[in-house]
Automatic annotation (TrEMBL), chain A:
SUPFAM superfamilies: P-loop containing nucleoside triphosphate hydrolases. This is ABC transporter, ATP-binding protein. Belongs to the ABC transporter superfamily. One of its GO terms (cellular component) is plasma membrane. Keywords: ATP-binding, Nucleotide-binding, Transport. Coiled coil: none annotated. It holds the Pfam family ABC_tran. Signal peptide: none annotated. It comes from the Bacteria. It comes from Ancylobacter dichloromethanicus. The keyword Nucleotide-binding applies. GO terms for molecular function: ATP binding; ATP hydrolysis activity; transmembrane transporter activity.
UniProtKB/TrEMBL annotation, chain B:
It holds the Pfam family MacB_PCD. It comes from the Bacteria. Its main location: membrane. Residues 16-242 form the MacB-like periplasmic core domain. Residues 272-384 form the ABC3 transporter permease C-terminal domain. The chain crosses the membrane at residues 15-36, 268-290, 323-346, 358-381. One of its GO terms (cellular component) is plasma membrane. It is a multi-pass membrane protein. Keywords: Cell membrane, Membrane, Transmembrane, Transmembrane helix, Transport. This is ABC transporter permease.
Length: 232, 394
């Protein structure tokens, strides 16, 4: 029996009215990502990768098409984005090019914050944050402020934050762009491990082909459409 | 997790400096209020303490403080004969510059009608009240004179036999008490040439006082009246004013004239400045709360991205505003300490009353600051609600 589909984009399109006419940032993409699957989304600048992430991450509504999460249709044209905040909180973890940690919180607190937002009591939340950091080999940095962490460490804290409330889907936008090749590969290996061990569906938008071997699947976008789909 | 508190702990110096800034502004508010109290207190000092029920002053004038006034040197004897009058004292007051220890000083010479005026109405800081007939003085400490000093006034040398503290006139010049006859002599000091010209004028009947019942060389500004216990003040006033050459003012009228005529513009100016500083404080505090919100727009966007409810963001901004309120309270307490330390060094008396501090604390912190913080937080929350989660990805 194949793993359940976590993210399902069906005929997803996003059009903007530009000065030169209609801009088709995304033009009818359909894509399923299963639980435990690590999918790399590749493509040149302007190919629609980030737009796809916005729509899949429920940060924008599509001009056409639907987004399904864990078997539930959550977004379609006209959906109220504010209402989707709850879904985002429960079901999606985000990792960005920059770690985007809150500068006045320690690493453990940054991780714990995600759980506090879902109304878990502060004490167990912090303990859980420390456990997550330990799982990512960062227990010694739990009490450090972001400014005292290296770029790789910051990104791993960001991954831990994305994992904190055990979302079924993680969306990562160029997570290795600010890291050297060694650190970048470490982060990708981390996603690989998370997908395998937790059954989390992970979609990584990236330009970086150095870790391409770690993906279960690579998806190429071009001019807002799926150009090629390759199964590793 | 109290995000506002975490932020404050992360950058404590910014909050400490904010507290100091608020403290300085509030010190200025306390100072302006205290200066106002001081000016009013100083101006009313003699009026309220000298223990007079009525002031007989020059006719058609509002002397001796709001306007100049001169009454006949024997006016006290005329007033003393009015039924209902218990006792009378002559009074005069004028500014005087004098040299002391090589420096020019200022004082407000106040003539006390010795022995009728026994000085009971003022508290001596050192020495004694005037006893001898001539050439003794009681000086306020602010004149720079101390007991046993000798000072030349007009053509006589006076011994300082007593000193007072915080007894100044409405301009802040220290009071220098001398006998009324000495005060007249000091006021009448003229050059030899002036005396010669005055005599010559009298010889031709063209002296300056022609046409007036008051001798123009009279330096008596007013006659102070204490009424007998059963006396009807209105009757006494009517009797004296029927003479036509004088006007009678009650102590309350003197107070009103001083506050609402002589000091009106000064009071208004001080209150305007106080209002201005309060406004500046309000703007500064509002800006701090708003700026702190703007500084956090990225974090707010991030919180929204990871699914934080609007209430989480609003709570953070509210907590921040509350923290500023607490900083305001700390600033207020600091400002009280600073005021106690600094204002005694100021040239004018700054009166810090517990009632004023309580009112300032209540009005400024309890109400104004709470309103300002609430308004600023509301604006901040409104701004934060417009933040889009996508800004994190921009």
């Amino acid at each position: 029996m194949s793993p359940p589909v976590i993210l399902s984009a069906r005929g997803l399109a996003r059009h903007y009215a530009g000065p030169a006419g209609l801009v088709r940032a995304l033009d009818g993409i359909s894509l399923d990502i299963q639980a435990g699957e690590l999918v790399g989304i590749f493509g040149p600048s302007g190919s629609g990768k980030s737009t796809f992430l916005m729509l899949a991450g429920l940060l924008e509504t599509p001009s056409a098409g639907e987004v399904w999460l864990a078997g539930e249709r959550v977004s379609q044209p006209g959906t109220d984005l504010d209402r989707l905040r709850e879904v985002r909180r429960q079901k999606i973890g985000f990792v960005f090019q920059k770690a985007n940690l809150i500068p006045f919180l320690t690493a453990a607190e940054n991780v714990a914050l995600s759980l506090e937002l879902v109304d878990v009591a502060p004490a167990p939340v912090l303990a859980h944050g420390c456990r997550l950091l330990a799982a990512l080999d960062l227990s010694h940095r739990a009490d450090s402020l972001p400014a005292r962490l290296s770029g790789g460490e910051q990104q791993r804290v960001a991954v831990a934050r994305a994992l904190a409330n055990s979302p079924p889907l993680i969306l990562a936008d160029e997570p290795t762009a600010a890291l050297d090749s060694v650190r970048g590969r470490q982060v990708m290996q981390l996603f690989r491990r998370i997908a395998a061990s937790r059954g989390t569906a992970v979609a990584v938008v990236t330009h970086d082909t150095r870790s391409a071997d770690l993906f279960d699947r690579r998806v190429h976008l071009e001019d807002g459409r799926l150009a090629t789909r390759r199964q590793e | 997790m109290n995000l506002a508190l975490k932020d404050a702990a992360h950058t404590p110096m910014r909050f400490v400096l904010t507290a100091f800034g608020v403290a300085l502004l509030m010190t200025a508010v306390i100072g302006m209020t205290g200066l106002y109290r001081g000016v009013v207190g100083d101006a009313l000092l003699v009026i309220e303490r000298i223990d007079a029920d009525l002031w007989v002053v020059q006719g058609e004038r509002a002397g001796p403080f709001a306007e100049g006034s001169a009454v006949a040197p024997d006016m006290d004897r005329r007033v003393a004969g009015v039924p209902g009058v218990a006792d009378v004292r002559r009074f005069t007051q004028f500014s005087q510059q004098f040299a002391f220890e090589g420096a020019t000083r200022r004082a407000t010479i106040t003539g006390a009608d010795i022995p009728a005026d026994d000085g009971r109405w003022l508290a001596l800081a050192a020495g004694r009240w005037l006893a001898a007939g001539r050439c003794e003085a009681v000086a306020d400490e602010s004149t720079g004179l101390a007991v046993s000093d000798w000072v030349e006034l007009a053509r006589d040398v006076y011994e300082i036999v007593g000193s007072t503290r915080h007894m100044v006139d409405s301009a802040g010049d220290g009071l220098l008490f001398v006998g009324i006859n000495d005060a007249t002599a000091i006021a009448q000091k003229r050059t030899s040439e002036a005396i010669y010209l005055a005599r010559a004028a009298r010889g031709t009947g063209e002296f300056a006082g022609a046409g007036s019942s008051v001798a123009q060389e009279s330096k008596i500004a007013a006659v102070l009246v204490r009424l007998a216990p059963a006396a009807d003040a209105a009757n006494v006033i009517a009797t004296i004013e029927r003479w036509g050459d004088v006007r009678v003012l009650t102590t309350q009228q003197q107070r009103d004239l001083m506050l609402n005529a002589r000091l009106w513009k000064l009071r208004l100016q001080i209150l305007a400045f106080t209002g201005l500083i309060l406004l500046i404080t309000a703007i500064v505090v509002s800006l701090i709360v708003y700026t702190m919100t703007l500084e956090k727009l990225y974090e707010i966007a991030l919180l929204k991205l990871i699914g934080a409810r609007e209430s989480v963001v609003a709570t953070m901004i509210g907590q921040q505003a509350g923290l500023i309120g607490l900083i305001g309270l700390a600033g207020f307490l600091l400002s009280i300490g600073a005021a106690e330390l600094v204002f005694p060094l100021f040239p004018r008396r700054v009166v810090i009353l517990a009632g004023d501090l309580a009112l300032l604390g209540l009005a400024l912190l309890g109400l104004a600051l709470a309103l300002i913080c609430a308004a600023a937080a509301w604006i901040g929350i409104a701004r934060a609600s417009r933040v889009n989660a996508r800004e994190v990805l921009a």
